[in-house]
Design brief:
The complex is a heterodimer of chains A (440) and B (528). Helix content of chain A is 32%, strand content 15%. Chain A contains 12 helices and 15 strands. In chain A, the strands form 4 sheets. In chain A, strands 1, 4, 5, 6, 7, 8, 11, 12 and 13 form a 9-stranded mixed sheet that branches. A two-stranded antiparallel sheet of chain A has the order 2-3. Chain A has a two-stranded antiparallel ribbon with strand order 9-10. In chain A, a hairpin with a 4-residue loop joins strand 14 and strand 15. In chain B, a hairpin with a 2-residue loop joins strand 2 and strand 3. The longest helix of chain B has 19 residues. The relative contact order of chain B is 0.13. The chains are: A alpha/beta (440), B mainly alpha (528). Chains A and B meet through helix 5, helix 6 and helix 7 of A and strand 6, helix 17, helix 20, helix 21 and helix 22 of B.
């Protein structure tokens, strides 16, 4: 594990001088990416950050981005025109409809599956259980592959909760995300950190008391603990933590993003305020932020559920895209909206367990890609009349992952080296290629 | 038999079983003087085997532990918690020559031993696969295990009872191993878990979908083994009024499994009758299958069962198994000390699968009581035990230790423990395999949890200081009390001087910071 940013001695020097940066985060523009950090992809990196908006549960394509009014079960909603001629999306997404010139809608995304394995596959590109390993999620790979010297918080921040396993896997604790399962947990953490001077004093004492033990126990675990402690101390006063403080945003901005924290069984991170937080984290240079909303598993009452979830989603994503555009960050921030699967083209009659909803559907789903240097204003792929099968070319989840890596300058054709033994494990299956419509 | 993929190896195994050889390996360890050696004798034999490898590698091992080091280690290993400051002082001042052996005996006899084992084994065997509301209650399962470990139920009997458990969970906790409300735990899950934990053969799960590339275990063999669980059915007793889902249980059908409802079976599908991994049929062929399988697993002649538990027990105490990873005891993964593994496995069987005897023997060995301090010459050794491997405090050890240092109120402890352990949550793997205790996996967020004032231990440093910084005590005395409570030892002269200088004139605030720093040390975070 390497200590990101300043060494401990530098940290103590800074804190002893009392210099803790308080520059306002909003609107100061992005931190330039030094050339030395870029690991060239095929076309060079365009996206400095990726915001993965994880639609857990499997959002229905026919109620969001692939309306089929002429199908047998079109559902309750009508398609509306968008800012792109010929592209229509659900009427409950009017704000996003005005920004479709920035978006590519991938209507024939395939490779999804049921909650466990679908979520795992969408995040890792590997079938759950195979290889005898736990594979790392997208954010952890980005954390491992990209350098961000000067960043004092983890490179991968997770706002919310991804059920069914999306973890750093064999990349280990160093690339685990900084997780905030609830909005309140951010505030909790901010309130509890130790004061700077006190922390410096304690770290100095720690060093002197630990000396003898470190010298006499020359083993990896001791070294790992020491580094983790240093990281934790550095983190407590990291300049980037300001990004998590939403009180620094105008009330009007916070309201524009909206609120939605319903997350199936347990309320989670407010997705809308999470999008605002993600924008702020991108502004301080965090390369990967995942914001989750897990409430898409609409086996029942899909119309009613969509009326609850789509308006706040619309506000949040539209505000996020608008804000990034205003700050000149849209071209360098890749936004990906995706879930683990689609939902059935039919709405079965109300029955004993489920009624008026759509069930799991792995054959096709919709994904939306915005910014990050991708080509917007297009639809990629067309589904059949019922909206359940690809009618022409499909885009595989792996291709989408390759696109993310390529845009961020990560060479996904190379291998991880997994300890023990340095077992080579490809970042992505060898044959995977980015989606040409997005990148070309 | 490396490279032999045909039934040649199966024949060898069968022959070995029929000939009465207790192990798949033919290397033999040192012969004990008596057929049933005492724990002390077995400890000496362990040391002999370990020494042989030192000699071969020309490796000089580190010294033995100090008393304080030994006490802390053995308490963490057998009870999952550090000793109290009083325990430490009493042990250091104990003048008996055999105090270490006596301590081991006391720890094994204490009910906390069973509690800690049950805790660990609940994690291993009982997994919440679905949400809690679909799962059988965990408490009866843990209680069953605790009782079994504390009365030192022979391990073969424990395994037998778990595999064949019937009745409802509310009345027989062992049943929770195999059941949840959606039905019996999926066949392949139970098979994989049983093979991994009781046979040390995690590789068998690969054969669920394809023939294993290196070992002899084929897909047909896998499903023939899984078939031993095919008679199990869920029963319910709705007269039971108690824990939620406690009315859920297991019974066994007679005869072959019922025909599947969906007639739509893929081509090439065929039902496989139950067969043991060595190819033999159960007798009688119509079952009861679980009993037949449990008999086979726990037979003294079973080549896997004893070795698997010996290896697992060794790994618990040393942070690594004689075979590593501990559940991959197949042909392609050789033990570091084959003779020692064979010796211990034979002795485990001969003792009647007496687990406390095995643990007692290992803990009394010089190998176990070696310090974890490295020397320049042996620091690079990670497999020969020239110095005790360092283990990381598990989340439950951490919680129980913090709770012992400054006890939480009862109400707070109850829910707090589960939440705390869950917050150190490890990535969910596909079949509940726990990570290596020798591998440091604590991440930033988890470390912050310990370092910042997070519930439920937000007041711990202050509460500890309140306990020990009594009026009239000198700074040296308070510093010593803090060291005894947190690090389970007395401070050195230099440490006392540094600490006293730190707290100088700062009163309680100074002591509180010192306490927090001690809690942040590697020495505290690790079991060394």
């Amino acid at each position: 594990m390497t200590l990101p940013g300043a060494s401990r001695r530098d940290f103590l020097k800074d804190s002893a001088a009392g210099a803790v940066a308080t520059a306002a985060v909003a609107g100061t523009g992005a931190t330039p990416l030094p050339a030395a950090e870029q690991k060239p992809g095929a076309k060079g990196p365009r996206a400095k950050s990726c915001i993965l908006l994880w639609m857990g549960g499997g959002p229905s394509q026919k109620e969001t981005f692939d309306l089929k009014p002429d199908s047998d079960h079109p559902g309750d909603f009508k398609p509306i025109q968008t800012s792109v001629t010929g592209v229509q999306i659900c009427e409950l997404l009017p704000k996003m409809a005005k920004q479709m010139q920035h978006a590519a809608v991938l209507r024939t995304t395939v490779g999804g599956g049921d909650h466990n394995r679908g979520t795992y596959f969408a995040h890792t590109g590997v079938t759950l259980g195979s290889g005898g390993l736990v594979y790392p999620t997208l954010g952890s790979v980005v954390s491992a592959e990209l350098d961000r010297p000067g960043l004092e918080i983890p490179k991968f921040v997770l706002l919310g909760n991804v059920r069914y396993g999306a973890s750093p896997g064999f990349l280990g604790a160093a690339h685990a995300p900084l997780i905030f399962p609830k909005l309140g947990s951010v505030q909790e953490m901010m309130n509890q950190k130790t004061a700077v001077a006190q922390l410096a004093r304690e770290m100095k004492l720690l060093d002197s008391l630990e000396e003898e033990f470190h010298q006499s126990h020359d083993v990896p675990a001791v070294d790992a603990h020491r580094k983790t402690v240093q990281r934790a101390a550095a983190f407590m006063h990291a300049k980037e933590l300001k990004a998590l403080d939403l009180t620094q945003e105008k009330a009007a901005t916070r309201e524009a993003y909206g609120n939605y924290a319903g997350d199936g069984g347990t309320p989670g991170f407010d997705f809308c305020q999470g999008c605002l937080t993600a924008r702020r984290l991108v502004e301080v240079g965090v390369p990967f932020v995942e914001v989750t909303v897990g409430a898409w598993d609409h086996h029942n009452n899909i119309a009613r559920n969509m009326r609850t979830i789509l308006p706040p989603l619309d506000s949040a994503v539209a505000s996020l895209v608008g804000d990034l555009k205003d700050r000149g960050l849209l071209d360098s921030t890749l936004i990906v909206m995706i879930g683990e699967m689609g939902r059935g083209p039919t709405i079965p009659p109300a029955g004993a367990n489920y009624g008026l909803g759509r069930h799991h559907w792995g054959r096709v789903m919709s994904a939306v890609v915005i910014g990050g240097g991708t080509n917007g204003g297009q639809v990629v792929g067309k589904t059949d009349k019922q909206g359940g099968e690809p009618d022409d070319r499909s885009v595989h989840l792996l291709d989408l992952q390759a696109t993310i890596y390529e845009l961020m300058g990560i060479d996904h054709t190379k291998d991880h080296k997994v300890e023990p033994g340095g077992r080579p494990v490809p970042i992505l299956k060898r044959t995977t290629r980015s989606v040409p419509d997005l990148i070309g | 038999m490396r490279g032999s993929r045909t039934s040649g190896r199966v024949r060898l195994l069968t022959a070995a079983l029929l000939a009465g050889c207790a192990c798949a390996s033919t290397v033999r360890g040192a012969e004990p003087a008596s057929p049933k050696p005492s724990a002390q004798e077995l400890a000496r034999l362990i040391d002999l085997e370990i020494q042989k490898k030192f000699d071969a590698a020309k490796l000089t091992p580190s010294e033995q532990t100090s008393d304080a080091e030994f006490l802390r280690r053995v308490c963490l290993d057998l009870h999952g918690v550090v000793p109290t400051a009083d325990n430490v002082v009493a042990f250091l001042e104990d003048k008996r020559e055999d105090k270490r052996a006596k301590l081991i005996d006391e720890l094994l006899a204490d009910p906390r031993y069973g509690q800690y084992q049950a805790d660990i084994w609940t994690s291993t065997l009982y997994r919440v696969i679905l949400e809690r509301r679909y799962s059988p209650p965990r408490e009866p399962f843990t209680e069953w295990l605790e009782a079994a470990f504390n009365k030192n139920m022979p391990w073969d009997r424990q395994a037998y009872e778990l595999i064949t458990a019937s009745g409802i969970v509310g009345k027989n906790g062992a049943v929770a191993y195999l059941v949840h409300t959606k039905g019996v735990r999926p066949l392949e899950e139970v098979t994989n878990l049983t093979a991994r934990v009781f046979l040390g053969r995690a590789d068998m799960k690969c054969a669920q979908c394809h023939n294993h590339p290196f070992t002899d275990f084929k897909q047909a063999d896998y499903w023939a083994m899984a078939a031993f669980f095919s008679q199990v059915e869920v029963v319910r007793d709705n007269t039971y009024k108690g824990l939620q889902n406690g009315n859920l249980g297991l019974g066994d059908r007679t005869g072959p499994p019922p025909k599947r409802k969906d007639a739509d079976q893929p081509d090439g599908y065929k039902a496989v009758p139950p067969r043991f991994p060595n190819g033999e049929k159960p007798n009688p062929e119509s079952g009861p299958y679980r009993k037949a399988f449990a008999d086979w697993v726990t037979a003294p002649k079973n080549p896997f069962f004893a070795r698997a538990m010996v290896n697992r027990t060794w790994a618990h105490l040393f942070g690594r198994g004689l075979v590593n990873p501990i559940d991959e005891m197949n042909d392609t993964n050789a033990p570091t000390h084959p003779e020692l593994l064979t010796l211990l496995a034979e002795q485990f069987v001969a003792s009647g699968f007496d687990l406390k005897h095995l643990i007692r023997a290992i803990c009394n060995s010089q190998t176990y009581q070696r310090t974890s301090r490295t020397t320049k010459a042996n620091a690079a050794d990670a497999v020969l035990y020239s110095h005790m491997p360092v283990k990381v405090l598990s989340p439950r050890q951490l919680f129980d230790t913090l709770d012992r240092i400054a006890p939480l109120p009862d109400g707070v402890r109850k829910g707090g423990r589960d939440r705390f352990i869950a917050s150190f949550g490890l990535p969910e793997s596909t079949d509940g395999e726990l990570p290596d205790v020798s591998e440091y996996t604590r991440n930033l967020a988890q470390q912050l949890r310990v370092m910042t004032a997070n519930p439920p231990f937000q007041n711990l440093p202050a509460n500890l200081v309140k306990q020990v910084a009594r009026p009239g005590k000198s700074p040296e005395q308070v510093v010593e009390a803090l060291y005894l409570a947190v690090l389970s030892r007395r401070p050195t002269q230099k440490e006392t001087e540094r600490a006293v200088a730190f707290v100088k004139d700062r009163g309680t605030a100074g002591y509180t910071e010192l306490a927090r720093v001690l809690l942040t040390t590697s020495e505290f975070a690790l079991n060394h």
